[in-house]
Amino acid sequence: MRQSLSSTRQETATAAAEPAVGLRQVTKVYKTGGAPVTALLEVTVDFAPGTFTAVMGPSGSGKSTLLQCAAGLDRPTSGEVRLAGHDLRGLSESGLTVLRRERIGFVFQSFNLLPSLTAELNVALPLRLAGRRPSRGEIRQVLASVGLADRATHRPSELSGGQQQRVAIARALVTRPEVVFADEPTGMLDSGSGREVLGLLRDLVDSRGQTVVMVTHDPVSAARADRVVFLADGQLAGELRSPTPQAIVARMTGLETPGGRS
Question: What's the pTM?
Answer without folding.
Answer: 0.87
